[in-house]
Design a protein that fits this description.
The protein has ten helices and eight strands. The chain is of the alpha/beta class. 34% of the residues are buried.
Length: 265
């Protein structure tokens, strides 16, 4: 048994420098994120679901938006955001696109399929061509309002190289200033109205006026509008009255596995 004489001062243990602690914490967090992404990339770690895009006046299904669910339960926006912080974002995007296109073979051939992509993946057009597979189905690439674009001309050229069956959509239109610049600079085939504009349009004159103005803009520029987040019959009726061509939302169909796809087996 070791004893210490009364009054003897023991040497103090030096605390690790703050920067060293932060660096260690950062490495640990990065390792955890990479492990989460690797689990998602493994077989059975993710699965595609599809939500109908409906022609509002006829009620027919015009297309489907492909969405991804992760078996971990993590929200897709968080999973993709974290993946990009550790350099695995494009790999995760590519895997999700591959899974969605494979499952989409079970969908009606005359319906387009919308895929959410980042500008960085679009700019890797050779890689994207390989992922899309050169099929005859119409594909819509959706770029969110929140995606940063530094070279709009390069993105337009990259989309053009993908061929006539591939078109572009700006998602979350109306959610912020960036979406307006995306619309002007990218000249998309579709504008997807953010649900914050769509919901309560039945009883909100300001929302109705804004959507009507965007409808006029689309008519003059040759793009088409898809209203997102339609959940109430009154809002659906108001959008039809304004003359919007397409919509999606829980009222028209919830995201579901494509019947006949491997994920539905």
């Amino acid at each position: 048994m070791t004893t210490v004489a009364s009054g003897t001062m023991l040497p103090k243990r030096k605390a690790a420098p703050a920067g060293s602690v932060r660096a260690t914490t950062g490495r640990t967090r990065g390792h955890l994120i990479r492990e989460r992404v690797r689990v998602a990339l493994a077989e059975g770690g993710m699965g595609p679901v599809f939500q109908r895009v409906v022609a509002l006046h006829s009620g027919r299904t015009a297309g489907y938006e492909a969405l991804t669910t992760f078996t971990s339960g993590m929200r897709p926006d968080r999973m993709f955001g974290e993946a990009h912080t550790v350099g695995l974002g494009l790999d995760l995007e590519a895997a999700c696109l591959t899974a969605a296109l494979h499952a989409a073979k079970a969908l009606p051939k005359d319906a387009w399929v919308s895929l959410n992509v980042s500008p960085d993946l679009i700019l890797q057009s050779d890689r994207l061509v390989g992922l899309l597979g050169g099929g005859s189905r119409r594909i819509v690439l959706e770029i969110t309002e929140h995606a940063k674009i530094h070279d709009y001309e390069a993105v337009r050229r990259a989309v053009a190289r993908l061929g006539p069956a591939i078109s572009l959509a700006v998602d979350d239109a109306g959610a912020g200033f960036a979406s307006l610049r995306h619309i002007i600079e990218l000249r998309p085939r579709f504008l997807k109205l953010d649900m914050s504009l769509v919901q309560h349009v039945e009883r909100d004159v300001n929302r109705r006026a804004m959507i009507a103005a965007m409808r006029q803009f689309s008519a003059r520029t040759g793009c088409e509008i898809i209203a997102e987040g339609i959940e109430e019959p009154g809002d659906l009726a108001a959008l039809r009255e304004i003359g919007l061509p397409f919509g999606q939302g829980f009222l028209l169909g919830r995201p579901a596995v494509a019947i006949g796809s491997p994920a539905a087996a």
